[in-house]
Design a protein that fits this description.
The complex is a heterodimer of chains A (208) and B (198). Chain A has 208 residues and is an all-alpha fold. Chain A has a domain at 19-151. Chain A has 10 helices and 2 strands. In chain A, strand 1 (161-162) and strand 2 (165-166) form a beta hairpin. In chain A, helix 4 (40-63) packs across helix 5 (73-95), helix 5 crosses helix 7 (114-122) and helix 8 crosses helix 9. By secondary structure, chain B is an all-alpha fold. Chain B has one domain. Chain B has helices at 3-18, 31-36, 41-70, 79-101, 103-109, 112-117, 120-131, 136-164, 176-191. The two termini of chain B are 17 Å apart. Classes of the chains: A mainly alpha (208), B mainly alpha (198). The A-B interface holds A 26-32, 34-35, 75, 78-79, 82-83, 85-86, 89-90, 104-105, 108-109, 111-114, 117, 179, 182-188, 190-191, 194-199, 202 and B 25-32, 35-36, 77-81, 84, 88, 118-121, 123-124, 127-128, 131, 170-173, 175-181, 183-185, 187-188, 191.
């Protein structure tokens, strides 16, 4: 992005989806979400919650940026994020209690997700509200795509189904890889994705 | 439950939190420092010890605050904000105390303490203890065990990575990629402890 002036909308979207994707580059911000990638449905709900919180807090941080004293901005940002997380957590508990139990503490842990704090600090704190919200939304989306890419093979190989629906070959003739739905499977899948993405990335990095 | 039964449960919970339910390898909490601060055994140990201390103390503080402030007031939904503030305040307090009384320790641990505030494992341990409805004594065991489990995992990872320094690793896999694969293998090994106690 250019140092003076905000980047154009399209650039923000591409940056969020690919160039700035923090998961490929540094494996940041997977703490609160990797654990739910053993089932596609849980991942979808978690991703929706995260994207919603991220977009809303980026918007709020940006709106309040002129009134926030510089030295306590971290605390203010944390409280804003926590506010939206409480809304999401409470509505999930009220309308979909089974999902709330399945996700356990991980909805609450969105608060400490490095990505949200990072976007608020790096972009929303110095930008206009609308670009900040777009940035937050597409960063969340880029992150969700990656998590879904991890969740799909895990559920398919481990359970032989996708979204709970049995798949033709995998539910009958396939010897299920139980390890894929257990924690090590998440580490291995993420490692494979980091490997693929990093093998593509270096050329672009040297070009920059 | 009698005190003896609770102590036994606490011991079992502590053991489980270290090995079978390792907060890092089974619940993926505290991954960010795990991948970035695990290059050297010494720094990993420093961070690990700080995590053990902060996790045990904040689990106790959060338990008391939740049980005696939030539950009587029916403000359970407020726990996220409460826990975050308690953790941040506690870390700040510890930092000031260490700085005042032991500058040497402050230089050794100093850089790690602020990092801990944003460590998801600390908040995660507190949230787990609420969800699982632990009693006070079990909470102490759980906080201590989770911290020790985290320390064990990051120390082993640092040890393995030091050995790997001269190994030839495929280009894209170098760095975070190989760390994740090692973590996966470690998680497999830790699953092997299932059923040892309890």
């Amino acid at each position: 992005m250019s140092p003076n002036g905000a980047p154009a909308g399209r650039q923000i979207i591409i940056d969020g989806l690919w160039h700035n994707n923090p998961v490929f580059r540094q494996v940041l911000g997977i703490c609160s979400t990797l654990a739910v990638t053993n089932l596609v449905l849980n991942t979808l709900v978690m991703c929706a919650a995260l994207t919603l919180v991220l977009a809303a807090s980026c918007l709020t941080v940006s709106l309040l940026r002129r009134f926030t004293p510089r030295n306590i901005r971290m605390m203010v940002q944390t409280l804003i994020i926590a506010f939206y997380v409480i809304i999401v957590d409470t509505s999930l508990k009220g309308y979909w209690p089974e999902m709330s139990t399945a996700l356990g503490p991980y909805v609450g842990l969105i608060i400490t997700n490095c990505i949200i704090m990072g976007r608020c600090e790096a972009f929303a704190g110095t930008s206009e509200p609308i670009p900040a919200m777009i940035d937050g939304f597409f960063n969340g989306l880029g992150y969700s795509v990656l998590l879904l890419a991890i969740a799909l093979p895990r559920e398919l190989l481990g359970m032989g189904s996708i979204l709970g629906i049995p798949m033709p070959y995998f539910s009958t003739g396939w010897d299920r890889w139980i390890i894929m739905v257990m924690p090590p499977g998440a580490f291995f899948m993420l490692a494979v994705f980091v490997w693929i993405c990093r093998s593509i990335k270096p050329r672009q990095e040297t070009a920059q | 439950m009698s005190i003896n039964a609770q102590l036994w449960t606490a011991a079992v919970t502590c053991f489980a939190a270290i090995f079978t339910n390792n907060i890092l390898l089974m619940y993926f909490l505290g991954m960010c420092p795990f991948t970035s601060v695990s290059r050297e055994v010494k720094t990993a140990f420093g961070l690990g010890v700080a995590v053990v201390f902060v996790m045990t103390c904040t689990a106790i503080l959060n338990w008391v605050a939740y049980r005696y402030i939030l539950v009587p007031l029916n403000l359970e939904f407020f726990r996220f904000i409460m826990f975050i503030i308690i953790i941040a305040a506690f870390v700040q307090f510890v930092e000031m105390v260490i700085d005042r009384y032991s500058p040497k320790l402050y230089y050794a641990l100093g850089i790690f303490l602020p990092l801990i505030t944003v460590n998801c494992a600390i908040l995660g341990a507190s949230l787990f203890m609420i969800i699982r409805d632990y009693t006070f004594i079990v909470t102490v065991g759980y906080g201590l065990g989770s911290g020790l489990g985290w320390l064990l995992a990051i120390m082993s990872m640092a040890g393995i990575r030091q050995r790997l320094a001269h190994a030839r690793i495929p280009r894209g896999l170098d760095g975070p990629g190989i760390t994740l694969i090692i973590a996966g293998l470690m998680a497999l090994a830790f699953i092997g402890f299932t059923g040892v106690l309890g």
